[in-house]
Amino acid sequence: MSDRKRSYRSDRVLIESEYVLDSDFNDAVVFLTGAHLEVLRNLLEYAHRPSTFSALYLTDSYLVPDDEDWDSIRAIVADLEEKLMGNENVIWGFTDSFATVLGGTKAGAGDYFSSSGIVPAGEVWKVESLSIGNMTGARGTLLLQAYNGAAYITLQSLITPVIGEILALTNPFTLKEGMNVRVYQYACLNGDQIFAAFIGYKMAV
């Protein structure tokens, strides 16, 4: 850029190029409405003009960035434009917590299982705790499972539990629309007291 000098204008907002190239601000996550995007996308037109950026203030004029700095600024502006045109990140907003009892008294001999509700459209559920145990006797394998929309997938298992031993979730996970969880124990007896709980929170998508 051979001629870097520009005259001041009362209707021009100048951005100091050094603050763009080496910002003191921390990264931030913001939520923008459609109206915000409309304003910002149009204002970015000014960011494509070297005259918008000042590398050095003089008495009656200022210098725009040199070629190297201008290329770096253009790359930053292009990255910003791409973010404003669409974002793959989905922002979640907390809506409610839940604590659901999945246990109970086994009616008749056989396998015990109990499922949570299914995640509805517009929500994701963050599972913080999922657990099951038989308070009455040492029975069959304990399972913690999640339904993926087609089948139940075992997350954790305990093959030979003793009386009162609890199988509990070790890693929290997220359920999307159409998914749910289930607790399961094989070979229970009539009257077995099953402890089972499902705890977490809901996020609006």
The CATH class designation of the largest domain is Mainly Beta
- Derived from helix and strand composition plus strand pairing, the structural class reads alpha+beta
Number-wise, the strands total 15
In helices, the fraction of residues equals: 10-25%
Rg: 29 Å
What series of H and E elements makes up the topology? EEHHEEEHEEEEEEEEEE
Total number of domains: 2
Furnish the topology, listing elements before pairings.
Elements: E1 5-7, E2 15-16, H1 17-21, H2 34-43, E3 53-54, E4 56-57, E5 61-63, H3 67-85, E6 93-101, E7 104-105, E8 110-115, E9 123-134, E10 142-147, E11 152-158, E12 166-168, E13 173-175, E14 180-188, E15 193-204
Parallel strand pairs: 2-3
Antiparallel strand pairs: 1-5, 4-5, 6-15, 7-15, 8-14, 9-12, 9-13, 9-15, 10-11, 10-14
Could you describe the 3D structure shown?
It is a single chain. The chain is 17% helix and 40% strand. It has 2 domains: 5-85, no CATH class; 93-204, Jelly Rolls (Sandwich), CATH 2.60.120. With 205 residues, it is an alpha+beta fold. The strands form 4 sheets. Strands 6, 7, 9, 12, 13 and 15 form a 6-stranded antiparallel β-sheet that branches. It contains 3 helices and 15 strands.
Question: Brief description of this entry?
Answer:
The chain has 205 residues and is of the alpha+beta class. The chain contains 3 helices and 15 strands. The chain has 2 domains: 5-85, no CATH class; 93-204, Jelly Rolls, CATH 2.60.120.
